[in-house]
Amino acid sequence: xxxxxxxxxxxxxxxxxxxxxxxxxxxxxxxxxxxxxxxxxxxxxxxxxxxxxxxxxxxxxxxxxxxxxxxxxxxxxxxxxxxxxxxxxxxxxxxxxxxxxxxxxxxxxxxxxxxxxxxxxxxxxxxxxxxxxxxxxxxxxxxxxxxxxxxxxxxxxxxxxxxxxxxxxxxxxxxxxxxxxxxxxxxxxxxxxxxxxxxxxxxxxxxxxxxxxxxxxxxxxxxxxxxxxxxxxxxxxxxxxxxxxxxxxxxxxxxxxxxxxxxxxxxxxxxxxxxxxxxxxxxxxxxxxxxxxxxxxxxxxxxxxxxxxxxxxxxxxxxxxxxxxxxxxxxxxxxxxxxxxxxxxxxxxxxxxxxxxxxxxxxxxxxxxxxxxxxxxxxxxxxxxxxxxxxxxxxxxxxxxxxxxxxxxxxxxxxxxxxxxxxxxxxxxxx
Length: 431
Hints:
By secondary structure, the protein is an alpha/beta fold. The chain contains 17 helices and six strands. The protein is globular, with a radius of gyration of 23 Å. Its cofactor is FAD. Pfam families: DNA_photolyase (PF00875), FAD_binding_7 (PF03441).
């Protein structure tokens, strides 16, 4: 009689039991052992995301009914070696970057992969000409149509037979002191993710509408949970579609769009998508922090809505989506600082920072990316505050000294800096 094989499930951005295709596949085959690798190749996590990951892993380990091996190093060495030592087959849910890591491991181990953390696979959604979409509206129409025709069917948490393997916990580096405030605003973990989805859908039922822009409106609070795979986008779509929250689901498709573009443009975090912006005179100082950038980072620009957003980010690891756009526009267009400085700061300070969305959204707001906001759309932070924070509650919470003699004047004149930005754009269009 042949012994039932052990399956090694390599967890990456999928720290959950429910609707986890790789885990369900492994559980059907026999004993399961989990693996998580703190990878020493590729871009390191920012401080806030690393803070979230540590707690997400702790929650996952406490609920995972099988041994979890947690190691640090290069997965190209770790995964094949561990598979040989355990005599185990390997499976994982796909990720859509770091193919230089995953491809050789798959070749060495014969790993079985499953759809990952998106609603749709980047190679499956194409234009009628067979090309990847570069504009969101037709992409959204195609994805929504596909999901309406074949709705996601989330999997329940499987019954797991634990392999007879000793669990391992990796040594973790100390956390930056500035992350100490994050715990008051964030609760990582699969259970917290489902609780937050229930809370969000309940609030929508009470409010009746979803407004992604209103600073006092209902927001999902799911971004970081999705980022670390504590809840699957298929499950969120399944629940939200049943509730008819189509405006929210459009934001979920936007997340897919960012990853599809990143899949095809893997250097998006460092290279302008639109080559004409290589000539744009942004201030860019690798490894240095210009004075204006430091003021922006710390919420001391003299622009209340921008400063409120940057202080919210520092304290909570989060920033409202509307304010992210305004803060990004102020940095790249009014201050004339390269979007890469903003992308790097958000990478370090956002709990939901991921490789695709962070780079894609920064290029969108800077005007240098696919389907970007037109460069001449320069968000006026004063009128944006009047429109989306009409009672001033958001600004008062984070910038209580605004509108008092203690608060400084804006670093640059809003109208004059806009004219300067548009003149620079005219220069690269005609130069």
